[in-house]
Design a protein that fits this description.
globular, Uridine Diphospho-n-acetylenolpyruvylglucosamine Reductase, domain 1
């Protein structure tokens, strides 16, 4: 276990939220994770922080991150097994190494495998749940278990992981044999498409609001006259209205208030309430029940 004291929160979230955490624990083995949970300490679990903001009360108890080498990477009979803490850009490397195709559509997303599975990440007609075979979890009592795709109960940007006290530690994905060249070409295509339409070179989340049924959050935000709208150091991207950019030392309070302002204006203009895709790690998440979020 690696222990980091008085750790800047802007290094934990892609939006670069301002703040200072008392301690961050990097869990390097499954045994360490089980041992920690058996202490019944309060904690907050976070992945790469691409879809999260952290309530200041969470700064007082340990913030846990899983090492990207927590479990081994393997490929056998069209099944790629990877640890939950593996960043997306490293996942792309393993797709090429093993010449197995499936998740190239996620190239460029600043997330971890665990976070993408937890929220059932998707784009351009693809969802990560389509390729997931099963995943391995540790609960707060230290029990080790595997759940199948069906048992995880995937939905649009949701899964049972968000509703239950489970920590995802590794996942198995179904792949199709391919070549390094074809996989790299698909990765490059996804990266170019993402960079052309999303402000990924800036401090940003992924999408901040879920798409309502039959519509798009970005369209509704733009229709409400909010594309490029700013408050303090926060603004909605001119590339994509459903992306927030942080240009300074924005706090949890700043971000929450900005999101609420956007929701209120869109509701008043269109009559539609936008549901947040961004996850707030709140004091409840810091109880001994732990956090259902891993993004």
């Amino acid at each position: 276990m690696i222990i980091k004291s008085t750790f800047p929160v802007d290094r934990l979230t892609s939006i670069k939220q301002h703040g200072l955490a008392k301690s961050v624990l990097i869990i390097e083995s499954v045994q360490e994770l089980i041992a920690f949970y058996k202490t019944n300490q309060p904690y907050t679990l976070i992945g790469k922080g691409s879809n999260s903001i952290i309530h200041p009360d969470c700064f007082l108890s340990p913030i846990l991150q899983l090492s990207q080498t927590l479990t081994p990477v393997s490929y056998k009979q069209s099944t790629l097994t990877v640890p939950a803490g593996l960043p997306t850009h490293h996942l792309m490397g393993f797709l090429q190494k093993y010449e197995c195709s499936s998740l190239e559509f996620s190239a460029g997303v600043p997330a971890s495998v665990g976070g993408m599975v937890t929220m059932n990440f998707g784009c351009w007609g693809h969802s990560i749940s389509t390729f997931l075979i099963r995943a391995r979890f540790i609960d707060s009592s230290g029990n080790d278990m595997w759940l199948t795709n069906e048992e995880i109960e995937f939905g649009y940007r949701t899964s049972i992981i968000q509703k239950n006290n489970l920590t995802l530690i590794e996942a198995e994905f179904l792949c199709t044999p391919s070549t390094k060249e074809k996989i790299k070409a698909r990765i490059d295509t996804s990266l170019k498409k993402r960079l052309a339409h999303q402000p990924l070179r800036h401090n940003t989340f992924g999408s901040i609001f879920k798409n309502p049924i039959g519509d798009f959050a970005g369209r509704l935000i733009e229709e409400s006259g909010l594309k490029g709208h700013s408050i303090g150091n926060l603004h909605l991207s001119n590339q994509h209205a459903n992306f927030m950019v942080n240009t300074g030392h924005s706090t949890y309070k700043d971000i929450v208030e900005f999101l609420q302002t956007i929701q209120d204006i869109v509701l008043s203009k269109t009559g539609i309430h936008l549901e947040k895709e961004v996850k707030s790690l709140t004091p409840y998440s810091c109880s001994k029940l732990g956090s259902p979020n891993l993004t």
